[in-house]
Amino acid sequence: MLTADLHLHSTFSIDGCNTLQEMTDAAWRAGLRTLCFTEHVDHNPRDTGYGFYDYEAYREAVLQVKEAYEGRIEVLWGIEFSEPHLYPAELEREQQRGYDMIIGSQHFLGKWFFGEREMLEQWPREEVFSRYYEELCAMADHGGFDVMGHIGFPCRYIGDHPMPEDVARVLAAKMVKSGILPEINTSGFRKGYPKTLPDEPFLRIWRDLSCGSVTAGSDAHRIGEPGNGLEQAEDAVRMLGLEPVVFRSRKAVRL
Ligand SMILES: [Zn+2]
Ligand SMILES: [Zn+2]
Known about the structure:
9-stranded mixed sheet, alpha/beta, TIM Barrel, 11 strands, binds zinc ion
């Protein structure tokens, strides 16, 4: 059974609802044995999380929780850095901060978050996806982080869109070259999108072009969510013959 959830948020993220302690306790009760907090670090001025991140306070709280839960649940820490290729100096600073894992995620396209109606007024739906895929490729080329967050993210907001196979191959190859793994993000199941992010076709291509390593994460923002959907992630891992890993001090280790 998959007992490592490597994508969780607490109140150190603008949209997190529960404290580190509460989230860790919920994860422990849900049967998890390893977790990694991945708090939002946002640099787009229109992002609600802009300027919210507090490294010192987060670090201190993580150390306390690690100690309190030692021997019961392994508490790792990291960040989810939005659009890392657009903020290289800020990314470099975060790379020096001793995290276990850095997720790079595309949450915005220009001025807009994927959930904003204005985005679709600016670009037709098809163009939103093609622009999104271009950004993912640029992010993979830039590198400097460990895991690409929730590939296929706009599907959660504007509906399903199969990534063209040639695009998936190019993206997967770029990720291999930069040493970036995909996660199997299960947040869609809570948000009306009944698939993992990325979905099976991308993971199949990933398996064929890479070592097949992946992380899995619920993207939990409140108690009740840690571990959600890991059964579906596990199904994908089994069916496709993928290799679940955990990051410690930014090194991938087999589970
Ligand atoms: Zn995200
Ligand atoms: Zn997240």
